[in-house]
Description:
This protein has two domains: 8-214, PmbA/TldD fold, CATH 3.30.2290; 220-464, no CATH class. Helices cover 20% and strands 38% of the residues. The chain has nine helices and 20 strands. Strands 3-2-1-4-5-6 form a six-stranded antiparallel beta sheet. Strands 11-10-9-12-19-18 form a six-stranded mixed beta sheet, with helices on one face. Strands 8-13-14-16-20 form a five-stranded mixed β-barrel.
Amino acid sequence: xxxxxxxxxxxxxxxxxxxxxxxxxxxxxxxxxxxxxxxxxxxxxxxxxxxxxxxxxxxxxxxxxxxxxxxxxxxxxxxxxxxxxxxxxxxxxxxxxxxxxxxxxxxxxxxxxxxxxxxxxxxxxxxxxxxxxxxxxxxxxxxxxxxxxxxxxxxxxxxxxxxxxxxxxxxxxxxxxxxxxxxxxxxxxxxxxxxxxxxxxxxxxxxxxxxxxxxxxxxxxxxxxxxxxxxxxxxxxxxxxxxxxxxxxxxxxxxxxxxxxxxxxxxxxxxxxxxxxxxxxxxxxxxxxxxxxxxxxxxxxxxxxxxxxxxxxxxxxxxxxxxxxxxxxxxxxxxxxxxxxxxxxxxxxxxxxxxxxxxxxxxxxxxxxxxxxxxxxxxxxxxxxxxxxxxxxxxxxxxxxxxxxxxxxxxxxxxxxxxxxxxxxxxxxxxxxxxxxxxxxxxxxxxxxxxxxxxxxxxxxxxx
Length: 464
């Protein structure tokens, strides 16, 4: 078996053959990426990469329980395979019983393409996008603005095999586009981003036109003090806040009294109403355009994931339904501890608010308020309330009588997404969006804009 010609499924099978542990799970991630970067209305770099990562999870039964050992390595060759398997076994034998130990997931039907070669991306994914981007450069240059940004497309084929007979595969395409427009003096800046599976549904010309309008709004500068303002949060900002909320919704943490989802006096807040709006926050691996892995792929264990759950099916889950908290992220182990249903985390997040208005229509219905572009540098302040702080970036605009009248200074904010859901007075139309802060880790999101009557801009920021 050579390093270059071996197929991922062959590596998985060979690693399982080499295992002498009581149980074994092998995950092979075959990755490829293509990218374009540009600055000042001109392409600067482009490239294509390939990579392979192999993760071996060994489990060893003992009188005190089952231990696990996990070892991951990239660029694994045939000569590296046995040492990798032995290292995982040694780690398991040297560890104490795993708290999250469960029987490995039993095999169901194998993925029909498990033995096929991995899917790959190439620069051809930009065949239609690149010429359209070039046209956007020409329009920007003629309009006296400069475009900066990057486009990235990744394809990851993941193969999961186990000693219990699992043979599963998932191909995950993931594309992101970030476009930033600046005035020649760099004093004004506007940003737009998109997530995409194949770059066939992105329109650089439309994005540039929107950025040009925002730069025009910024020609008038208005200084505002810190305070609470009626604020329109665009879908990208809503995504950043609610993704962090999902990451903070482990059932065990809540049951142990450590998070905003802990019930005072014990237990969790599952069943409580979080919002007066009929909001539905959900994940579904089969959501059209936002498809993600329909089974658990866990390279490590934590409070919201377990290596013992690899291969466990993921179904559509309502985290919030009709404004009420329905589920918290639960592994099989934490479900047993908390009494809550098993609810693995998924690779997408959708908020349906029942609204039909676009963000532009919500602006037209605003007497006075702020319109944000995006959030940045989000950090947690207090896990008990999920209080977050962060900055606005690339344009905050003042709306008066349904019209944008100018750009205001940036702010630092202090807000909890859970508290925001309780105070939001309107949700707009749900649309696919790219989170600005978390786009390197989580891209498959669909969100509406939200109207918050009293968003807390805690201090003025000097950022652009």
